[in-house]
Amino acid sequence: MSASPTTLPPPTEPLPVQADRPPWRHTLIALSVPNFRLFTATNLVAMTAGWMQRIAQDWLVLQLTGSVAQVGITVACQFAPMLLFGLWGGVLVDRFSKRALMMLTQGAFAVLSALLAVLTLTGVVEAWHIWVIAFLVGMVTVIDNPARQVFVTEIVGHQHLRNAISVNSSVFQLGGMIGPALSGALLVAVGAGWSFGVNAVACVAVVVTLGFLRTSELHRTPPAPRSKGQLVEGLRYAVRKPTILVPVVLMAFFSVFALTMPVLLSAFASEVYDVGAGGYGVFNSAVAAGALAGALLSTRRAVVRLRTIVGGVFWTGALLVLSGTVPVIAPFTVALVAVGMSQLLFMTASNSLVQLSSNVAIRGRVMSLYVLVLLGGQALGGPLMGQVVDHFGAHVGMVVAGAVPAAAAVVVGLVLARRGGLHLAVRMRHHLPVPAIVGQR
User: Can you tell me which residues the record assigns to a coiled coil (predicted)?
Assistant: First the structure.
């Protein structure tokens, strides 16, 4: 008798991942895989160019409209498709070749970036042009992002997956450190259009790189057969596993309020410190510099548990609150570095825990749910935080951005403690009692 189409996959079997802290020589062990080295090298260029486009895009909207709230609308346009269609993207990723999907999506990104470059360089660009293209980019991201998440597993296999996630985060943040600085220089020198052109070329480079990967060395995931109820199947699977559900819930709060840095930092650059496009690029680079350090530190992490995620969200929120109370530009910039480091430590932990907790046959749908709250939350948070900043100022906006996720982490921690997932213990360190949160997962 055949199984029902909505029968849940079996619980994830133990995966061959390293449980002990790796030696220093294995800090970047995932790069020992030739395909991953090639993919990572091109990814660095693509991430740098992608950050260049995002910074130029947000600043161009601010120039055209003079409103921080309009920057929030731009963020909403780019991430709303994930909120609306993200789960369907995961179904497609589970059904088709991840490599082929990424070649199509990166080609589409190249076309859209080239179009935005032409509109800007010819001087005819208007805010609504940017919003439409941002929305189309978001539609492509519905498929590209979960495909990219799962494709990393196919490149390196499960053994080096956690390290590969950390390396990917390092590359993303290194691009986030270089890209805003380059984009700020281009904005001051020649305007926004050239940043969009650079991103178009970088996307073409990704397509070429994907074509050169050694397909015989990929750890291919068998495509899921078409059947009814696959979307609901993924949701049920995620809800049944605390190691997936808790990170998703906390990431939802964090993405809506705290991952609205383009909105917040554009306000600090234009209204609080009056440092223009160059200062806006420096602020984003400061966050990325801290995040790069956090991503590299995450490669040294031996174990990821729920308390890692809960504590990470709380401390990142607390650092955002602290940043919002700093009145001087130099310590504010230093505080952004700390925010970036703390944020990436918990985000890489969250990504690792969700991927390693999900069955490979359903991972595309699970990751689409995770990406939905990660990116879709920003579609809600962009306009929301834009309104907060416009009505109450940038400092209040930054405090709100940190306080709400920190409060959510406290509530989730208390719920887990009540259910036995976490409890408070006192450990002795250097002959002194130190309180610590401990748990099974």
Answer: none
